[in-house]
Amino acid sequence: MSLVYTATHTPVRDRVTWISYIQMSFFAWFMYSFGATQALLRDEQGTGLVVASLHGTFLSIGGLLSALIVAKVMLRYGRGRILRVGSIGIILGVLVLTWPGASFGITFSGVFLAGFFGTFIIATVNAFLLDHEGAAGPAALTEANALACFSGLIGSLLVGIGA
């Protein structure tokens, strides 16, 4: 019988760590709320289930294409720049998606942008937290994901209440 001692590491919750947590939470808010808004979007656009479900397909395609390049882009331009570009890109995507009276072709491009730039945020925050927190990196990732899940839950609930 052996006794194994495991040290616990607590993340340092400094300004940049909180910014990373919040960026991840904003993207989770969008992702969780996105599914809840599909029926509302379908009604607004007067489309069927197939066209409405293509929004999720375009979101996924954006994320997949971004995943192919995000590591190289991050190495070339740095994490800070990529986080800023990702944040601006997802804001642009959400604005396009929620533009009043937009056709489904326009909203497809909005969710594509949100998926593409949202992947920038997720990949960069994960890499940053592991480097920045050192041995406490896994704990910081757990905290970031817990906060993001809570944010997503609140977003979905608010969409439901607002509907």
Detailed description of the structure:
- There is one protein chain.
- The longest helix is centred in the first third of the chain and has 31 residues, at 15-45.
- The chain has a domain at 56-162.
- The chain has helices at 15-45, 49-77, 79-97, 104-133, 137-162.
- By secondary structure, the protein is mainly alpha-helical.
Question: How do the helices and strands line up, and which of them pair or pack?
Answer:
Layout: H1 15-45, H2 49-77, H3 79-97, H4 104-133, H5 137-162
Helix pairs in contact: 1-2, 1-4, 1-5, 2-3, 2-4, 3-4, 4-5
Keywords:
163 residues; mainly alpha; 5 helices; 83% helix; globular
Summed up:
This protein has 163 residues and is mostly helical.
User: SSE order in H/E notation?
Assistant: HHHHH
* DSSP E strands, number: 0
- Main pleated-sheet profile: none
Strand portion, in percent?
A: under 5%
Number of helices: 5
User: Judging from the principal axes of the Cα atoms, what is the shape?
Assistant: globular
Which regions contain 5 or more consecutive residues with pLDDT less than 50? none
Average pLDDT metric: 91
Structural class determined from secondary elements: mainly alpha
Using only CA atoms, what is the Rg?
18 Å
End-to-end Cα distance, whole Å, is: 58 Å
Percent helix range: over 70%
